[in-house]
Amino acid sequence: MTISAIDAILGPQQPASAPDGAPDDDEALDAYSRAVTTVAERLAPSVGSLRVSRRVRGGRLLDGAGSSVVITPDGFMLTSAHVVARTDGTGRASFVDGRELEFEVVGADPLSDLAVLRADARDLVAGELGDAERLRVGQLVVAIGNPHGFAGSVTAGVVSALGRSLPTQAGRIVDNVIQTDAALNPGNSGGALADGRGRIVGINTAVAGVGLGLAVPINGATRQIIAALMTDGRFRRAYLGIAGGPRPLPPRLARELQQDAGVEVVQVVAGSPAARAGLRPEDLIVAVDGSPIRGVDELHKLMVGDAIGRTLRLSVIREGQRRDVELVPAELEG
Questions:
Q1: Which of 113, 175, 195, 283 is catalytic?
Q2: Which of the residues 80, 153, 189, 315 is marked catalytic?
Q3: Are 144 and 192 spatial neighbours (Cβ–Cβ below 8 Å)?
Q4: 189 is catalytic
Q5: CATH (domain of 320)
Q6: Closest Cα to residue 74, out of 107, 111, 123?
Q7: Residue 3 three-state SS
Q8: How does pLDDT run across 81-116, given as a tens digit for each residue?
Q9: 190 and 297 housed in the same domain
Q10: Are strands 192-194 and 140-145 parallel, antiparallel or unpaired?
Q11: Which whole-number Å values give the CA distances from 328 to 248, 274, 275, 281, 315, in the listed order?
């Protein structure tokens, strides 16, 4: 076959690029790659690789690993509560700049699977906390962590779904979890899930299957938890005893209440404050003490220590009719 025949199939050979005036690597990157590399460069210095010793059955100590995210220059870090569970409350964190620092567990909240650590440092690179409430399905997200001990690993994907529920090791459910197809593996737990601007919108917490990772969202409710763990080492919760999820209101009720959604009661725990108050599955909570409730996050924000033992007035829609229910939350244990 002649050269001209080959050219007819493959196209003529392109002239070699001259060194002078050749596009550099930055110009060759497409928009997706630029977004991922920008996030990685910005956030990688804030992500730590954790090493802990965990006590297992029989009293033996086994080495464990995970990830963390620096949130203040003076050493406060976020991770997953299960990463530091059953440890002696200490460990070591290493960073991409080569530093290796000892840390202590300041506080852990197994019910949200969040924990706050404190490293002995004053000049760490802090990541910026974002707001998961602004995420949209299909939006680019970047996960940075230390899967299988490979520090500073970066994967990217999209928000596959929002509002998922995650069972925790404490036997409770974390609501409003972010689902992503960004690859997560053991060791990613406690690492950052960031949006396209490098803001931390979630803490990676679980691998539910191939292409199915889950992250605890950074939002108003979890910011309260983080603040309490930093200052008090624990987070007190009011307990209603329901499992619920967001549900759109029928058009007539939406116009009447001037809100588009509420929280549907899916399950009522026997013997709980909700059961004693007479709440039922399929009840739709639309307000607490006159404050509109449009989603689970708004309900969680109200379930703080001040609500424990105080009578709350819940406005619910039952069988198309609005009614008020009085409920006295208990303190959630464990």
A1: 113
A2: 189
A3: yes
A4: yes
A5: 2.30.42.10
A6: 123
A7: helix
A8: 999 998 889 999 999 999 999 999 999 998 889 999
A9: no
A10: antiparallel
A11: 26, 8, 11, 18, 14
Instruction: Spell out the residues 6+ positions from residue 272 whose beta carbon is closer than 8 angstroms to its own.
Output: 239, 240, 241, 242, 330
Same domain, 255 and 118: no
Q: Would you give the DSSP letter of residue 319?
A: T
Q: Which two tokens stand for residue 30?
A: 């497409």
Which of 67, 80, 82, 112 is an active site residue?
A: 82
**166-195 pLDDT, tens per residue?**
776 555 667 789 999 998 888 889 999 999
Q: How far apart are CA 292 and CA 7, in angstroms?
A: 69
Judge if 228 and 262 occupy the same domain.
no
pTM: 0.73
Buried b or exposed e, range 277-292, using 16+ CB within 10 angstroms: bebeeebbbbbbeeee
Q: Looking at the chain, how many residues does it have?
A: 334
CA 76 to chain centre: 17
Q: Which residue has the tokens 């960004």?
A: 182
Buried b (16+ CB within 10 A) or exposed e, 119-151: bebeebebbebbebeebeeeebbbbbbbbeeeb
Instruction: Choose among 94, 197, 182, 168: nearest CA to 138.
Output: 182
CA atoms of 46 and 238, how far apart (whole Å): 33
Catalytic residue flag (residue 82): yes
